[in-house]
Amino acid sequence: MPTKTLNIAVFTAKLVAPLPAAEVQSADFTRDLAQDWNRGMEDVRYAEYGHFYEATGRRLGVVGHCQRVADQMCKNWQEAQAEQCLIPAPTAKELRWKKRLLSHIRDREEVAAAILRDEARLAPKKEG
To answer: What is the pTM of this model?
Structure first.
């Protein structure tokens, strides 16, 4: 037997009230973040493979591979990683990836700010 009576009007008002903006993270929003993240990771992988191809060719002495091109491909890879870090992380897994790269990125301030925004968005909501 309940010890407290419920006011149906108050209950209904709370039930139909919109969620605060900080609590709204729908499945569509999460899916869209994941799609954006995956598109960016394709660019990172493409740049990584280009660097690997050039560096390996240079190391093996394959004709046509030079250090200048390998260095440019490495720079492209680093730039792709830095750009990827500016995309909002859809889950904590991607956030950890960003944190690991932070020490290797030249323009750390912008990436650090993006990481802080992700941490705030992905932080567990405190009940209270």
So the answer is: 0.70
